[in-house]
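Figure S7 source data.
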Amino acid sequence: MSVRNVGIDILFLPRITNLMSKEINSRKFPLRILHPVEYEFYERLPDHRWDSLNKRIRFLARCWSVKEALFKSLDNSRQQHFEFKEWCTVSENMTEKPAAPSITSPHMEDETFKVSLSHDGEYITAIVLRLQG
Ligand SMILES: CC(C)(COP(=O)(O)OP(=O)(O)OC[C@H]1O[C@@H](n2cnc3c(N)ncnc32)[C@H](O)[C@@H]1OP(=O)(O)O)[C@@H](O)C(=O)NCCC(=O)NCCS
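Tokens for the predicted coenzyme A complex:
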């Protein structure tokens, strides 16, 4: 298995909180960035308050950050057709968020994406390693 590329992202959680505080975004944003399987998981999370401790905000931030890092690990030609919601970072029938998410690629079956995440207060960071073979 060889390393093809790497991608990194850092995200300030209040960016997502601000975005989601607008009524129109709170409906559209999750649908725009989440894979249907992720969306199912998201809908099961409690949403009683919109701050950076909210589980839904954290889940959105995690998915966003992983996919931004993933985007950076892709070649230019694939970046041009990149759609956040085509990529899934959770397993089907998942009841708990995995500690180390794996990513299912919609196109390239011979590729594996390894993810590492870290949090500190209102920041989340993700690294994605794109492997082949
Ligand atoms: C290119 C992109 C990943 C940059 O992300 P960002 O959060 O704005 O900025 P970051 O600080 O994380 O990253 C900037 C660094 O990414 C790197 N970078 C820029 N374009 C890149 C690309 N196409 N591929 C890989 N790395 C890239 C550079 O090193 C850059 O640093 P520099 O400005 O010092 O050269 C982002 O703007 C983007 O286009 N994402 C596309 C995803 C998308 O479609 N979003 C909408 C979702 S619905």
